[in-house]
Design brief:
single chain, alpha+beta, six-stranded antiparallel beta barrel, 44% strand
């Protein structure tokens, strides 16, 4: 059985560390091994939110009961808040160059874009070309373990201070479960890497 890996968030929803479940998750007390040597940072918080990295199951809130070395015991309760919404709203600022391909609209070929941010639910990118809200396209996401080509729909223009190009927000559509898992792992890993180190 694959061990469940959770992203641990503070009360404001900011990612702190990853943790691996040890033993059963059927009761209200969970044993969790904190990865990346971030146990001290975890222990600064009394309550944590837990979002599964490996599946799209529910999210939980946990109160730290005790700790030993890199292990913590949590008293957990399922969160009423929709875990899917929490994942989709977990947005990470990340810059990568990529390409978009039209699925609808009046243009053909491919166009270069540069990302502004990425979440499990969508991407924001800069381009020199004009796109319409509702237009569907494919975008290459190169920051996952294997590059993904994902279908997305342009939602709107976003304000930007860059004069030379336009910033568009787009949501991912028609993703299969494997694509969602790969994307989720990439977003969570980028979130953790991008956190300022505690001094």
């Amino acid at each position: 059985m694959e061990q469940s890996i959770y992203l641990l968030l503070d009360s404001k929803g900011s990612p702190i560390a990853r943790g691996k479940i040890q033993g059963s998750t059927s009761g209200q007390f969970w044993q969790l091994q904190v990865e990346d040597g971030k146990i001290d940072e975890i222990l600064e918080h009394k309550r944590l939110k837990l979002l599964s990295i490996t599946d799209s199951g529910p999210s939980y809130e946990g109160t730290i009961v005790r700790s030993r070395n890199d292990m913590i015991q949590l008293e957990v309760a399922k969160l009423d808040q929709d875990a899917g919404d929490m994942r989709k709203n977990l947005r990470v600022a990340v810059r990568f160059k990529s390409l978009i391909y039209p699925l609808s609209g009046s243009w053909t070929g491919r166009r270069p874009v540069e990302s502004n941010d990425l979440s499990c639910g969508g991407v924001a990118f800069f381009t020199d070309h004009s796109l319409q809200a509702g237009e569907q396209l494919e975008i290459v996401i190169p920051v996952t373990s294997e590059p993904l080509v994902l279908k997305c729909q342009v939602l709107r223009l976003r304000p930007t201070e860059r004069a030379s190009s336009v910033l568009y927000a787009a949501k991912f559509v028609d993703m299969c479960e494997d694509e969602e898992t790969v994307l989720r792992e990439a977003v969570f890993n980028l979130q953790l890497r991008g956190r300022p180190k505690a001094s």
